[in-house]
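Researcher: Structure for this, please.
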Amino acid sequence: MLFALSRPAALAGLALAFVLALVIRVLAIRVVQRRQVPAGWGTPRRSGGKLVDVKRDVDIFGVVAAVVGGTGWGKKAEDSGMAPPPLRVLLAGPIAVLVAAQAAFLAFRLVTGPVALDALDVSNVLRGDVLGGTTVEIFLLSLAVGLLCFGLLDLVPLPPLDGWGLLRHAVKRPGTGFQKARYWLEEQNVGIAILLAGMLLPLFRGLPLFLFLLDLVSWPFLLIWS
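Model: Predicted structure, token format:
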């Protein structure tokens, strides 16, 4: 978001996208947790009536990534210790955010009409580099891209993202190597270090690794609205 300081409409769209994504993800997770609480699974902790509990739901490193890189993440879904959260819980957050992104793209299209979004690099939007358009159009595009990138980034198989829990489910019989990797990535916070480096340090075409990857994986979603 720092790169978007000179474009107030883009900055507002990215900031709102990050806050909305955090709230949508948390609400989706809570809804699924309350409908499906497996045996041995702790009842989801209460948030004291708050929509989002800062200590429980907001990851400070995710906020740093959003401020500098344009998008970030929330805290990992609550697990039971050794076992990852159920698949429905892990999928609820990113899917809900991606659906919200499509609604934002629909609003953008209703305002602008047909636009060739398939040629758009989301990394440019995350950095506030939105050429042309009215204030409303820039705001809506930044909002839609911010939501889309939050949802896609959340599927990366690194802790504390939901994609890491999905990977743990995919590995039915984790061996010693996987257990060591989990120790370093989770307990020693190497996963967060990789995420921050991948969001902040230029690597490919002058872009951080994850912004470069977001340009690639976001293309099918942008093609839908082209």
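Researcher: Any notable elements?
Model: Residues 46 and 53 are 9 Å apart (CA to CA). DSSP finds eleven helices and two strands in the chain.
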